[in-house]
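Can't attach files on this board, so I'm pasting raw text. These are the components:
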Amino acid sequence: MADQIKVAYWPGCVSRGFTPELHGSMALVAQKLGIELVELDRANCSGAGVIAEHNQELADTLNARTFALAQQTGLSMMNICSTCQGAQSECQQRLDADSGYRAHINEVLSGQGLSYEKSADGSWNNKNFLWLLVEDYGLDRLAAQVKRPLSGLRVGPFYGCYIVRPKERLGYDSYPDRDIYLEKVIETLGGQIVEYDGARKCCGFPVITMNRETSLSQAGTHVGDAIDAGADCLVTPCPLCHLNLDMQQPEAAKVVNRDLGLAVLHLPQLVGLALGATPKELGMDKHIASTKWVQERLTAVPA
Amino acid sequence: MADYTIKVRRYQPESGEPAYWEEFNVELEPSLSVLDGLLQTKDRTDGSLAVRCSCRAAICGSCGMKINGQSGLGCKTQIGEAQALADKKAAAVGGASEGNVITIEPMGNQPVIKDLVTDMESTHWEKFRRVTPWLLPAGTPPEREYIVEPESMIDITQSMACIQCGACVSSCLSMEADPLFIGPAALAKAYRFVGDPRDAETSERLTDLAHDPHGIYDCTHCFSCIDACPKGVAPMDQIMRLRRKAGEAGIEDPNSGHSHEMAFVKIIEKKGTLDESMLLQESFAPGVLGKLMPTKRAIKEMIGSLPTAIRGIKTGKMRSLPKLIPGIHHKLPGGAQDEVKAIYKHAEAHNEEFNLYIKGEEGDEEAAVQEGLEPDAADYLPTGADKEASNG
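---
Top answer:
Structure tokens for the assembled complex are below.
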């Protein structure tokens, strides 16, 4: 058995808000995979790019605080939200670029007994569950855990912008395949990859309050394209994408003027199904777009 | 030398036929460009293939195109790299890991004139003119040049690096959904004048761009333009700067972009994590006044969000009081909220922007010194492609 993985875990806001099934399914899947999660319950919102838009230094300091809390545990950090990944990577890039700027930010944190230290050798990092699963846990090890291969299940990947762009910031120099990890995971779990136009496009969520029509036409178009390509479901590592693709799906259907009705799974849910968890244990009954079809497509796990 | 197959999206309007794909074989060193491959095809196989190009050195901005679905310059993309990407994409979905065709298409979000030549006039340039892309100074112009401090111009050097190739427009996912969006190239140019100390119409420019329903608050923050830009302009970052400046100037917009931003910022100060119900309410009807006298749009949006909320309650997703009643969302535990507030107090007092394009990473600065440049001068040089150009 390979090394036990233990990480400082930042669940983000939405996984404990409007997508509670994500938080729950991650806990269950971590347990099944043997990943120990040390939850950062004192940490704050990543700002989702919105706080950085208002005041960059504020966003940098808030995320430096989260990093410092994670470093206090002596562990690397894991998140389950593409948007957190992107917003935090952006701040980390600036913090790591300049020791003077880092010292300036750490001055504020020192009053709280905290300090963010750049790890020159990359030994401390912050990875989305998707990255951790492929790079640290390993696909071979994952394959060995599969109890119910997702054979016959046609899955469309949906990444979320914040985890695929900009490449230069998100470690693609060292890990060039990060934009095809979902395909690798789907394949490892025994599922069938569905190719469609929207896999790396924007779900539209960031402008849902500002330009509802544009936002929902993006979500509706991608869901529609996936259906046309024969998908049984989508899978996403981003709860904000999930809000627009699942929670808003009936509204998006009105905007694109067609029937939708495609299940959208969170990444831990897809993994959990292959590990033998029941859809109910994974909170799949909490979705807006029905997940019944996914359940019907899957054969039961022998008792 | 290596053999490559390029698959080109072709279209000749005079033929009356729809667009079609055509494959060509080319023989090139892997370090040569995709544009070189197209020019070889034009030279040896089919002289009718239309492609726009001039400098072949990523300076003129003529050869914008989509290569394997990614927007960029044909002359700045090595054909060997394009092959590697085509192979990676095919292998990811179960195809062969080598020998795949390289797809080449005209830029997106623009009408096609012929083959790879798009009509930049009706999209790119029209939007470009929309932002008044010239200086509007106050008073009579000085007899000689304007005198400005170098420091006051550094902020706009990144947006000045634009070569008008249209790759960002081609990649823009907002424009794909809303063709009226002013778009990344024009908005980056808008910042070039908003940030110019000589310009006297900053406030009018910001108000105009914030009030346009397809203006600065129509960007979906997808980072596509950042990856597409061959010159490191990062148009999306310039759009975020425009939003920041508009916010600082207190400009409210009909899209509730600024009130959404402020609602988000204030909720995290009070609660540490996001209170989603509160965010929705405060974005549309901010403060006591917003609730006493809600705008027509606020009422419409709030009512419009009701079916979603009801569905959420039905499935159990939103079946808890803090999710339904704005404001009762818990704070961070054990004094952590006070730590967040202390951070706000500090950062909101000065709001420093650390622009990596201008300041560079510490390692880069050393590299500049090693190349014989004075450290002071290196501070004023943009990083990335343009730095290489200035050194060369």
